[in-house]
Design a protein that fits this description.
Blueprint: E1 10-11, E2 13-17, E3 27-31, H1 32-43, H2 50-69, E4 82-83, H3 100-109, E5 112-116, E6 127-128, E7 138-139, H4 140-148, H5 153-161, E8 165-169, E9 172-173, H6 191-206, H7 222-234, H8 245-259, H9 289-304, H10 319-331, H11 342-357, H12 383-396, H13 413-425, H14 436-450
Parallel strand pairs: 1-9, 2-4, 6-7
Antiparallel strand pairs: 2-3, 5-8
Helix pairs in contact: 1-3, 2-3, 2-4, 2-5, 6-8, 9-11, 12-14
Length: 462
C-alpha cells in the first residue's frame, strides 16, 4: 500500500518555485543538500562564526522540511514544495555560487533538523535578519553575537526557540505524493484510512458538525463515511463520502491549519498521531484481522470462480493464502506477486461485493448473509447492522445469556452489550466488535436455529 509521509525523511530532491505562489514562474528541482547550500549562501555570510552558520543552517533545513513534511504547497494544488519568495519562504537564487565552507557544513549536517520535544514534525523554524526585520524566531545577526559570546549552535537555537527543542536526524529517501493510488471509500482498510479518521477527529474539534470516529481503527465504515460527507459539505466538495484527490489534500490542508503545523508555536504531531496499525503490504508471515478478511473474501470469490483455490480462514498468511492471492491477481490482471497491497485489496473488495450482489434476495429468507466486508462496531449505521441485530434476536431466543435488542440499524450500546455476551458465551475475544469471526459465529448460529435445531450448545470449558 502507498505510504503517506508518516515520519520525517530527508527528501532526495526538492522542487522550488522561482516566484510567489501561483505566479507563472519556473520550477527548479535539485537535491536537498544543494538547495540548502544555495539558501545558506544567499542568506548568511561565510565569514560569520561557524556556530552561527550552523545554527542558521539548522533553521533553514527545518523550515524547508516542515514545508515538505506537511505538503504545505502540494495540499494547495501546487506542483512544488517551496517558493523562493522571501515573504513566505527562503531566499533561493538559481545558479548562484556556493561558498566553500558553507558547502562543507551542509554536507555534514543536511540530515539534521530541529524538533520540539515530544513532537515529530520538523519545527517551522522561522527566522529573520534581526536588523531590517524582526520576528519571533531566530535573529540571524543576533546569532552572530551569541556565537561570538561562545554559545554553540544548539544553545543559540534554544535561546530563540526555547529550551524544549532538540536536534534529530532522519534518513534520506525518495518522497512521492501521499495521495493513495485509488480513492478511499466504504470498505477500504489501512493506514491511510486511519490517517483520515485522525484528521477528521481533530478537525471536528473546530467543526463540531463533523461526527467523531471512535476508535480511529483504519476501517472505513459508515461513521467514517458520514464524517467525510460532513467535511465535504463544509468545505464545498462533492459530498459523496469518497476520499479522492480533492478531499485528501483538503483534509491535509485543514488539519495542518487547525494543528498550526506550519507555525512556530504548534499543537504538534506525536508518534501516536502517525502510529502504523496495518502493514502496508500483507505477505507470508502476516497475521491478524486484515489477513482474516482477505481470506474470507477469497473463500467467497472462490465459490464463484473455479480458478481460485479456497484459502484457509485462520488469520495467518501462509503459502496457501499466497497461492489463492496469486490466482486472484492472475484472474483480474494484476501484478502476480502473491502479496496484498492496496490495489489488490481494493480489487478483492470490489469483486467480493460484486459476487454477493449476484445472489438473489430470496436465498436470505432463512439464511444469514455473508460477512459485509467491513467490521461493525459502536456507532456503525447500516443495513448490515439491522441484519446483525435480527440474527442476535434469533440467537437470543435459544441462548438466554444473549439479550434481545431493538432492531434499528444503529450499532448502539445495547447492540454492543449483546455482542459482548455472544462473544463471552462462545469463547471469542470479548471486544464488542463484529469482525469476520464474530459474524461467522452469529451467522452459523442463526442458520442452525432457522434450520430447526433449537437446542443450545454446551457452555465452553476453560
Amino acid at each position: 500500500m502507498t505510504e503517506a509521509i508518516r515520519t520525517p525523511v530527508i527528501p532526495e530532491t526538492i522542487t522550488v518555485h522561482l516566484g510567489p505562489p501561483g505566479s507563472n514562474a519556473e520550477n527548479v528541482t535539485l537535491s536537498f543538500p544543494d538547495y540548502i547550500k544555495n539558501v545558506a549562501s544567499s542568506e548568511i555570510y561565510p565569514t560569520w562564526p561557524e556556530e552561527a552558520i550552523r545554527a542558521n543552517i539548522y533553521a533553514q533545513i527545518s523550515f524547508a522540511l516542515n514545508r515538505v513534511f506537511t505538503e504545505y504547497y502540494r495540499s494547495r494544488g501546487y506542483n512544488y514544495d517551496i517558493t523562493n519568495s522571501t515573504s513566505l519562504d527562503q531566499s533561493f537564487v538559481k545558479d548562484r555560487d556556493i561558498f566553500e565552507n558553507i558547502s562543507q557544513i551542509v554536507d555534514e549536517i543536511f540530515n539534521t533538523y530541529i524538533v520540539r520535544d515530544g513532537f515529530i514534525q520538523p519545527l517551522s523554524a522561522i527566522y529573520c535578519d534581526g536588523v531590517n526585520t524582526r520576528c519571533d524566531g531566530l535573529s540571524q545577526w543576533g546569532s552572530v553575537n551569541l556565537a561570538e559570546e561562545g554559545l554553540t549552535a544548539l544553545e543559540i537555537l534554544k535561546y530563540y526557540y526555547g529550551e524544549d527543542i532538540s536536534l534529530v536526524q532522519a534518513p534520506v529517501d525518495e518522497i512521492t505524493e501521499s495521495l493513495p493510488p485509488v480513492p478511499l471509500a466504504y470498505g477500504s482498510i489501512g493506514n491511510e484510512v486511519r490517517d483520515i479518521q485522525i484528521r477528521l477527529n481533530r478537525i471536528a474539534d473546530d467543526y463540531p458538525s463533523i461526527p467523531k470516529i471512535y476508535p480511529p481503527d483504519g476501517v472505513f465504515g459508515t461513521t467514517t463515511e458520514d464524517a467525510v460527507k460532513a467535511f465535504q459539505q463544509i468545505f464545498n466538495l462533492t459530498p459523496d463520502g469518497i476520499v479522492g484527490k480533492a478531499t485528501w489534500y483538503k483534509l491535509i490542508y485543514v488539519y495542518n491549519a487547525v494543528k498550526r503545523l506550519n507555525e512556530l508555536v504548534s499543537e504538534g504531531l506525536t508518534y501516536a498521531d502517525v502510529e502504523r496499525v496495518f502493514s502496508d503490504t500483507l505477505t507470508i508471515g502476516s497475521t491478524g484481522l486484515q489477513v482474516e478478511i482477505v481470506q474470507y473474501f477469497l473463500q467467497v470469490i472462490s465459490a464463484f470462480t473455479n480458478t481460485i483455490p479456497k484459502a484457509p480462514l485462520d488469520g495467518v498468511y501462509g503459502e496457501s493464502t499466497a497461492e489463492a492471492v496469486r490466482a486472484f491477481q492472475q484472474e483480474w490482471g494484476l501484478p502476480v506477486t502473491g502479496e496484498v497491497d492496496l490495489v489488490t485489496w481494493e480489487k478483492l473488495y470490489d469483486v467480493y461485493i460484486a459476487d454477493l450482489s449476484t445472489l438473489p434476495e430470496s436465498i436470505f429468507s432463512n439464511t444469514a448473509r455473508p460477512f459485509p466486508g467491513i467490521t461493525l462496531r459502536l456507532g456503525s449505521r447500516a443495513e448490515d447492522v439491522r441484519y446483525m441485530q435480527e440474527y442476535i434476536n434469533t440467537v437470543a431466543d435459544v441462548y438466554p445469556e444473549v439479550p434481545h435488542i431493538p432492531v434499528t440499524g444503529i450499532f448502539d450500546e445495547d447492540t454492543q452489550n449483546a455482542i459482548f455476551a455472544l462473544q463471552n458465551r462462545f469463547g471469542l475475544p470479548v471486544t464488542g466488535v463484529v469482525d469476520v469471526a464474530t459474524w461467522e459465529l452469529l451467522a452459523r448460529l442463526y442458520d442452525t436455529i432457522m434450520g430447526g435445531d433449537r437446542e443450545p450448545l454446551p457452555m465452553p470449558t476453560s
